[in-house]
Amino acid sequence: MTRISTIHGIPFNEFADRSANVATAKEFFPYLSMTAGELELSLLRQRAQIFRQFAPEMGIYSEAVRMIDRALNEGPAGVNYVGVVPDELQPLAKILTQATHNNKPASRAGFFGRTSAKVGEIIPATQRRQQCIETKMAQYGLPKSRLTPPNKFPSPNEYSVWEKTVKPLLVSVTATCYRQFEIEKILNSGVERSGHHLLYKSLPKDYQIPGDVRTKRILHGTGVEGMALVGEIDKSLMYLWVENGIIQRNTENKIGPLSSVTSSIYLAPDPQQAVAAFNAWGATQPTDKWQKMKSGAALNGKISIDPITAGVILGVAAALEAAFGFLKSIREQKDYAMVQAQGFGTEAFSASQGDWLGNPDAGSGGFSTGTLLLLGGAALLLSK
After folding, report:
1. Pairing relation of β-strands 10-11 and 6-7?
2. 11 three-state secondary structure
């Protein structure tokens, strides 16, 4: 591979320094006690912050972070914009308005524990655990006052009744809450680290790609949606979360905040030609300016990047190990978790340069042995 010393006029060392400016600390999303709107806002902020740190001279990303912070800290009042919102951020303004009013639980396994209507309120961990137990016990018609036996009993049998009826249910509910918190912890440590294992998830369905890539695109989608099922989170939010992980990992590997789609294209035999062809195709597709901002396309022309394919391959290799560990941990909590994502956590499931050697047509292509092993999962998805 040719060594790149200059990237469109920017010395490679400076480019690597830009990637180093992106914070590597992983955020924790306590989705069990968040609304769907809060989780969406938090994920959008994480994305905007990555681009802001990589290209601080582009004030548009700083403005995006500021807008999202106002929405998180002030709720609906924070999105009553006074003045002119830049054209690139008009779509974001609409998203923020909708998100601040989206009060559905972020997870169907979740609960509410905030003490006010404030969006983005941080709830202490011990309080979250107790509120989880109280919320779920209330679903059985047992208020907080019934969770502990009274000091005095109106009748000799009352304590015995409490032990036989309330206490077993309390033990079961407590175990359920602790298991859900453990799953929340596993997702927070595993989703972003496993991102490159699902690299093809967002490749456009109407863009011509080789057969192996097309098959794995389906499988990678089942992987994302399997993670969503594990956390009982809306799949659109899980796609956003996984994408953030891919972009973050790419900056850690010093190849810049590349999206999953761009990273995928760079696995082609002639990356520069493949990317040029994809960009030409993309220019003909309808999209709003915020979508380009969110994908990092706004950096084009400002900081044009020729990423090194080896960086993507490094991300895929690290994600394979992380995905294997994630699957093992999550199945200790849920026996049948991720069964619909056949092959998840295996090398055959991962993206590879070999996937791109076939012809980009609508036919079946020449599937590799590894991909053929996974066709059962794809066939199952298509049959549904």
Report:
1. antiparallel
2. strand
* pLDDT digits 0-9 by tens, 317-341: 999 999 999 999 999 998 888 988 9
Structure tokens belonging to residue 72: 């998180």
Per DSSP, 204 falls in state -
Amino acid at 53: Q
- pLDDT tens across 176-219, in order? 999 999 999 999 999 999 999 999 999 999 899 999 999 999 99
**DSSP codes of every residue in 46-105:** HHHHHHHHH-TT-HHHHHHHHHHHHHHHHGGGGG---SPPPGGGHHHHHHHHHHHT--SB
Here the tokens at position 43 are 């994920």
Cα–Cα dist 378/73, whole Å: 42
| C-alpha distances out from residue 111 to 55, 106, 378, Å | 38, 9, 34
* pTM for the whole structure: 0.86
Handedness of CA 321, 323, 325, 328 (dihedral sign): negative
Q: How many angstroms separate the most distant Cα atoms in the chain?
A: 85
Query: Environment class of residue 334 by beta-carbon count within 10 Å: exposed (0-12), middle (13-18) or buried (19+)?
Result: middle
